[in-house]
Amino acid sequence: MASLHQSEAASFENALGGEVNVRSAIHFASGALAVAALAFLAVPPAVAADTPDPAADAKAFQKFFTEKFPKVKLEDFVNGPYSMNEDLHRQWEEKEQFPPYEFAIEMGKEMFSKPFKNGKSYADCFPNQGIGIRQNYPYFDEKEGKVVTLELALNRCRETNGEPPFSYVKDEMAALTAYMAFTSRGKPFDIKIPDDPRALEAYQNGKRYFYTRRGQLNFSCATCHVQIPGERIRAEVLAPALGILNAMPIYRSEWSSMGTTSRRFTTCNSQIRGVPLNPQDDEYRDLEYYLSYVSNGLPVSGPGARP
Q1: What's 125's DSSP letter?
Q2: Using CA atoms, how far apart are residues 284 and 276, in angstroms rounded to an integer?
Q3: Residue 49 pLDDT grade (very low, low, confident, very high; cuts 50, 70, 90)
């Protein structure tokens, strides 16, 4: 979400006066209420309201967006604002001829293949030597009882091998994740929620964070990315939440650099005049878990580029 002057934010907030609250947002606006209800027909109403069903959530979430944008193919939502109209799509096609993220892929490939001082490498820390696995992150670590993102896993790999961790919002982490995403392009997101109440709780916490208003502007993530994707705030066309993480990390013209998922989350909090959390705090990890799960089946398209 682009930075807003106070007057612009106020008028925008007034225009959004009818935004769904946290409970109604669970069913992803009125257009998805019927679909969500189907998942609970066999459950008594008193229980159904409090029984999480991630699979039903994901189905309703994807149905909401495909009905809202019937001309956009499901797999094209990963292209964010470039999937919203023909002019933007043409801009995206032109940009892809000489992608601004290409330098990050090359930098990440070099970093990934360079051994640590102890002789090991990133490949030793990941399944399939770290190639073609982006679609499986984040995952829920049943031993730790928490969500593990790709960024967190990379830094843990470094620390395990005696190397200092990278900043979660700087170029090095963006380059590593760009390379790993590039090796996974086209593979569908396949995020699992194991049969563990802690995993379901993490999913629910991420969902709750997504729909909760915060900051001086009193915005939630859903304000921009569920209710009005495709609309403009100043010069920026808002991206749909569906598939938004499939393109990460991204090169943003606004930043003139690459940005990680952590950078995107903290920046969004700042732009609504809220207090950002620390990168990789539990809330952000759970948020990534939720957003990734409801985009299951959509292909990895990262690294990407955005205005």
Answers
A1: G
A2: 10
A3: low
Query: What number is the average pLDDT over the span 276-286?
Result: 97
Looking at the structure of the chain, the number of domains it has is 1
CATH number of the domain to which 226 belongs: 1.10.760.10
Distance CA 149, CA 137 (A): 6
* Bridge partners (DSSP) listed for residue 140: 147
As to burial, measured by CB atoms within 10 angstroms (0-12 exposed, 13-18 middle, 19+ buried), residue 124 is: middle
Read off the amino acid at residue 130: G
Is the pLDDT confidence value at 202 over 90?
yes
Residue 180, domain extent:
1-307
Cite the active site residues: 268
* Beta-strand pair 250-252/304-306: parallel
Residue 100, pLDDT > 90, answer: yes
Residue whose C-alpha is closest to residue 17's, from 273, 227, 241: 227
**Residue labelled with tokens 């601004």:** 100
Residue 96 has pLDDT above 80, yes or no: yes
Sign (positive/negative) of CA torsion 93, 96, 98, 99? positive
What string of H, E and C letters represents the secondary structure of 10-56? HHHHHHCCCCCCHHHHCCCCHHHHHHHHHCCCCCCHHHHCCCCCHHH
Take residue 277 and report the two structure tokens written for it.
Answer: 């959390």
d(CA 179, CA 163) in angstroms, rounded, equals 20
> C-alpha angle with apex 290: 289 to 291, nearest 5 degrees?
95
* CB crowding 49-69: b at 16 or more within 10 Å, else e: eeeebbebbbbbbbbbbeebb
- Identify the sign of the CA torsion 131, 203, 151, 243: positive
Name residue 28's amino acid.
F
Q: Residue 232 forms beta bridges with which residues?
A: 237
Average pLDDT over residues 136-153: 98
Please state, in angstroms and rounded to a whole number, the distance separating the CA atoms of residues 290 and 246. Answer: 13
For the chain, list the strands marked E by DSSP. 139-141, 146-148, 232-233, 236-237, 250-252, 257-259, 304-306
Angle between helix 282-293 and 54-68 (nearest 10): 70
